[in-house]
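> run fold Replication factor A C-terminal domain-containing protein
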Amino acid sequence: MESEKPLSLFCTVVAMDTTDYCYLVCSRCEKTLPNEYSSCKYCDPKFFNPGSSNSKRLYRILVSIASSEEVFVVVLFDRVARVLIGCSADEFFNFTMVNPSAAVTAGKLLEGKMFQMKLSKPKVNGNAQHLRAISVTPLCSDFSPAMKTLKELYRDGVSPLHQSQPSSSTHGNP
Ligand SMILES: [Zn+2]
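> ok
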């Protein structure tokens, strides 16, 4: 009987691996593609509009989390990762193309944030090696996804990592 209950726990994000956070899939059937120039083996090319992309990106983010007992790595796939990032993997990818430091900044924004996560164990014979987060609920009521903050931080086209002291905080409040 397959009745392994998902593990539910409260945890804090310790670190997020933003070097390799997404993978390419066919935009129609969502099977993995080796690169963006390859076409899907399973879909007829005539289903794709000429000139439009036949691939898209989905999240697969490794996140180190700390529970009350230990620190370990979980993997967040697309549906769950969107809760943290706040947009599609394609949109996030394009944003980091324009703002190369944004991926690292996104990781920093989420560090220390608390969540309730439901985790499922990797299948015994599969090649999955990490627990998989199947749901993520932010515990702080004013949580905002990374992308929302990133858009504010990078609004002026200036990387926040290169900005000096914010100048508006001491003056001008009515
Ligand atoms: Zn396909």
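Residues 163-173 have pLDDT under 50 and may be disordered.
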